[in-house]
Predict the 3D structure of the following.
Amino acid sequence: MVELYSFKEIEKIRRACMVVMEVLMAVAEHVKPGATGHDLDMIAREEVKKRGGKPAFLNYKPPFSKKSFPAALCVSVNEEVVHGLPKKDIPFKEGDLVSLDFGVIIDGYAGDAAITVPVGKIGKEEEKLMKATKEALNRAVEQCVAGKWMSDIVEAIHSTAEEYGVFPVRSYGGHGIGKKVHQEPFVPNNRKDMGKTNLKLRQGLVIAIEPMFALGTEDTTTASDGWTVITADGSKSAHFEHTVAVTKKGPMVLTEI
Ligand code: MG
């Protein structure tokens, strides 16, 4: 069932989203050569606590997993696409792409966002990948007007990837959000994940849109830790995410500072 939210509830979701962004900004400052995902996870836990929020992913047990997620922050480096477990023993190095995904629950409402942060100077291909992913997110957000369709969002994302010659990763995507961090509907990034049913976007629908693009493939595998999703060909990946409310007048980006 797809839940719709009132403006009053959307403001509560926005409050959680603001904390998400503040924490992500604080964490991003520490992305540099020598730092580790574990360092960032510790900072995220501290920053969210200071603001009276609860990390949404810590101990979160998604339907596909038998175990619950052991960290507050998802840290996915280079070929790692999403759900990256923060690592203690592998420091970042110049040229890495570090994707940070964070969710917060405050006062019964959730917010969710992701950014990809370059470590020092990155290559031209990596720059293109980041630009494509960010642009896909912006174009998808523009579709969040009541009366448009889920397929308009998917088309905006997939066609941006094609324009840049990069690949929208299959099987992973965005989701409804509000009283829970992950709700219906699924928001695909790849046309092949659209299925037969479309969904009309209605006022009060709140979704996390999160394109994940890779340089060489749309296919993934899961690492031996059972969580970290990696590109099938080892090519690098980028990930940007906003929480957005659909209204009759257009999109309300709740994770915009
Ligand atoms: Mg999300």
The pocket of magnesium ion is lined by residues 112, 175, 208, 210, 241 (CB under 6 Å). The chain has one domain: 7-253.
